[in-house]
Model the fold of this input.
Amino acid sequence: MSWISRFIAPIFKTRTACAALLLAAWAGLPALAGASITAVYGQHTIRFTHVSTSAGATALGINDPGFATLLRDTGASLTWQPGDRYVLITTSVPTVVSFAVGDRRYDVGSIGLQAGIAPYQQGGEVYLPLNELLRSLDLALRQDGPIAVLQPQLAMLDVRSTGSRVDLVAHGGAPLRPRIVAQNANAVTYEFDGVGTALAGTRNVNAGGIRALQIVQTGTLRAPKTNVIVQLEPGAVYDAPRSNDERDVLISFAASAAAAQTPSSQAAGSGVSSAPAGSAAVTGVTVTPTADGYAVAIAVAGSAAFEWHRLRDPDNRFWVDVKGAQLQTPPIDQTEPDPVGALRVRQIDAATVRVALSLAGPKALAIVPSGTGLTVFVGEEEVASAPRAGTGSVGSVVASGEQAATVTPAPSDQSGDSAGGDNGWKFGSSHSTYVPKNPRLIVIDPGHGGSDPGSARNGVKEATLALDMAKRLRGILIARGWQVQMTHDADVDVYAPNDSAHDELQARDDIANNAGARLLISIHVNAFINSGPYGTTCYISKPGDVALARSIQRQLASDGTKDDGVIKSHLYVTLHALMPAVLVETAFLSNPNDFALLTSPSWRQKIAQSIADGIGQYDRQYPASNAPAQ
Amino acid sequence: MEKGRRSRIPANNVKSTRALTLLVLLAIVVAGAWYYLSKRGHGIGSTLTVYYTKLDGTTLGNLSFSLRPQQPGESASEHLRNTVLYAAVQAVAGPPSDVPAIRFPPGTRVTSASVNGSTAVVDLSKDVDRQAGGSFGENGEFKAIVYTVTGVPGIAALKVTVGGETLPTLPGGHFELDQPLHRSDF
Done:
């Protein structure tokens, strides 16, 4: 990969060059004598007054009002308090820039650099080296006659190989909108308007249809332009520039049209991952005891499909193959306590990691995709018949802001559907030992209400939808012979008008806890800052919530939106309920398709029906017992 | 006679020898304890793993960053605290904007950090409380910061305050914040 060129500002690379820049900056700052700098930035002027010098280098105090203006205008934020040694700046990228008093090292994201001077304290204020500070914000201080100019920079032009293609990834201190200003069979010229650069020069590439790159700054100091001239091999092809972020642009090249058809394996413009799409890593396998067996946790980084098999008793071998994955640990071959028996982990081919168990009998199993990979729960209980194979996926495959389905129901759920009852797939302590005072009472909590409308979109409030679905669920459950108590059946606060969130939530738990209810179901509607995420999720907090959540989620899986599975979280209502409790996030108000479903009365009725069906299945699997808790 | 002299001399020195031994042992214990306490931050290592939650709401991705070594004049406890601060700021910043991830509400920033035993205390600006979203965002945001900060050696839990005060819950999904958070909470 020696032909990959990286054009991060070469001035960073040598102390001599850095010193040259500092001297140049010093020479070009006539305002320094008055301990202030006035500079034009875009359409306005910023005046820096907390200016100091040390060892011939200019430094800027972080309490400077001009500095605050600059941070605001560039979308950056500062983390520092008096007495702090570290000064941390989060840029709009976002990249965290780290300075420390007394240390010349400063970090821009994952890149460690050396400043001309170390930040220092003076009069209770920390002063940062000005040029390095500006550079971390992708700016440069230039002198236009008597006027200083803060010039946004084309700060990075990275050349990245992605199979037969080459991507040019540009990053700037201002929105980048490159346009082609010249092109022929031998070269194409992209003009980046509004940015200057310290990257000027020519670099050989000789890959992906690119022979070389030439970078030239044109325009004026106040209205700079940077031209990137890409010298092409014969037959080379290139895409239009793509941008996922205003300040980052990616342009793809290939040696030929055929090569260009090869799917790019690079995350567009990210510069973060060079892993092939769908590739994953198995980073570890651990075996830990649970209440009635063991959990074999397979840590998977990235996206991967998996396929599992088990043989028929008396040959009780089980294995799961993680596809498109690399094993990042040494192979494992070790004996484990029963019922696991033995564990073997190895790379069986170039793209498959196999985790195999030699079970001590036809043990109950559950294969559960989880947040960090895949967990195989092995119970002590033996099962007469059970599924022998299954598939699923872990991780996420994201495109255009939306996510493909990543989790298929666990085999335990599939089996439960077909058997219609407890078939021995339960594991660990997932079933609660709570003993209800009233085993036929279910408390339904419509999320939010009263002074707290929850999320809202297009005039539709979460509280309204949640209350509607709760009432529908109440009707179904009562018809099936359950007793039902609502935490509220009107759009009101439960504890008191305009009460605190804590009082409000505790009041809802108190209703269920004081009544000794069998179950607590809290109904919500999800939302996010963008419209991408969608689907239905059951949130839980306690081990005793798992079985109920699975039963409900299994029914909700076919409700028309995506099955996002069961997620453990630290939510107040589920955490403080004594009984099994599930918070059902029915769909996303922020997603157009989910919004359409949520505003459909028939869909809300279907959701209520599914939740009731899940409760019914749970009740059949785990009939209420008045036996004291163990 | 020689035997008698040998027995008398040790007998006279036994108490003083034992006292001296005890003093030496005590000094070793004190010095060891001091060394342990003063160097406790030296085990932080040179790399920080910053986690972010992917858009499936639960899967974690991560990025690696190098850590600044302990500086002259920076005590071990201060170094630990500074590392926690850096970790929290990185977690709140999240990955570059073109990486799909659950992110803290715009404007959210870390205002301070401290360490109390094995619990990190991180204060966030009130912007974190301004987003009426759902469990999805809140769970993803805090899973990422909890995993990141508790990845710092010596830190087992994260207590989050908002605007300098303990906030019982967040508004959207009612994520509980009044107790320290552990990885096992997710």
